[in-house]
């Protein structure tokens, strides 16, 4: 079946006019209509076109798009694949191939706490299962915005906000219908071509899980039914 061309996305570069050789995880470029609407309705900042803040915001959205939807690192245009490293909360950095293998959620949520204290066990999740977990909880997507930018290239420092509407089950907890959000700080080091070499992210996962675990526990069979329904929805919302 032929892939329907996606409408041009105003927040993500390298989503259109790609070579036919690019391998997409779901067969073609994703569409971001739902999460773009959530972003536009819920953002707290609207940066002027061409501003450093807008450039940084769209660059991070582009990198996340490539990480979530491209299969091969060689098809990435936003990073320097030979030098790329992702560091979260001071942990050991992950290279490009490892980050691509486990996915953005697992990379951001890995931690060294004993298993009994882990709200989310990243080591037990695959790329696919991690995306299903959060797609289930946030059917409209998980929006992201830049709150401030403190320095320009080559080392860009910024503050960000991540949010979604908790409308589906999360790990056996019923949705609350409330906005779930957290804030964090990050730095991005770019080369002379403005391709990303290093990303460092610092945030408190407790901010995220405190809201996700507020919902009452739901029966296991009901949780699986709701999750399966959400997973069958369009996968291109994040």
From TrEMBL:
It comes from the Eukaryota. InterPro entries: NTF2-like_dom_sf (IPR032710), Pathogen-related_defense (IPR053218). This is Pathogen-related protein-like protein. It comes from Corchorus olitorius.
